[in-house]
Amino acid sequence: MTYWIKISYERNQYVINLDRVSAFVYEPNGTLKFWLPDNGFPIVLNPQANPEAHQKVLAYIKEVRGQVFDDYWVEINYERNKYLVNLKCISSFASEPNGRITFWLPDGAIPIVINPQSSKEDYQKVIKYIQRETGHSLP
After folding, report:
1. Is 26 helix (H, G, I), strand (E, B) or coil?
2. pLDDT reading at 119 higher than 90
3. Start-to-end CA span in the chain (Å)
4. What is the pLDDT of residues 79-108, one digit of tens each?
5. Would you state the torsion angle of the CA atoms of residues 1, 41, 96, 132, taken in this order, to the nearest 10 degrees?
6. Beta-carbon neighbour count of residue 47 at 10 Å?
7. Engineering a disulfide at 116: which of 3, 10, 16, 123 sits with its beta carbon 3.0 to 4.6 angstroms away?
8. What is the pTM of this model?
């Protein structure tokens, strides 16, 4: 079942299938950011400026984390923000000689680098996902 929401953002109305969003970003000030599927347009929701839309997206995240989070979603602290990433949307992974793994958010074109020393749990989750879904191992 898909999870559609309707929000107002910058004087436009959007109907968005949140199941197609590849990543959500929590910023330290409470702002929530994601990119529209298929075009990469960023939606930035501040809880004070757009409380209804912000709450709708948080409700979706809470629902996803309660149901399928352990299968293919990973939460990563990266560059002072918290990223919630749907690994099913990632199309490539790279392993560096130092063991770090890099992947790119498809709609945001942002590289995410996971260090095996500082993010052990997230690193292991990504490694296991790669092995399970692709049959290949990194590093």
Report:
1. strand
2. no
3. 35
4. 888 888 888 888 899 999 999 999 988 776
5. 10
6. 14
7. 123
8. 0.79
- Could you give the count of Cα atoms lying within 13 Å of 32 in the half-sphere of its Cβ? 21
Burial class (CB in 10 A: 0-12, 13-18, 19+), 9: middle
Helix (H, G, I), strand (E, B) or coil at 71: helix
Tell which residue, 93, 90, 125, has the closest CA to residue 105. 90
Neighbours of 27 (CB within 10 A): 13
Nearest to 72 by CA among 2, 137, 133, 134: 133
Residue 31 confidence (pLDDT): 92
Give me the amino acid identity at 108: G
Describe the chain by its helix, strand, coil percentages, rounded to 5. 30, 35, 35
Q: Which pLDDT score is estimated for 69?
A: 57
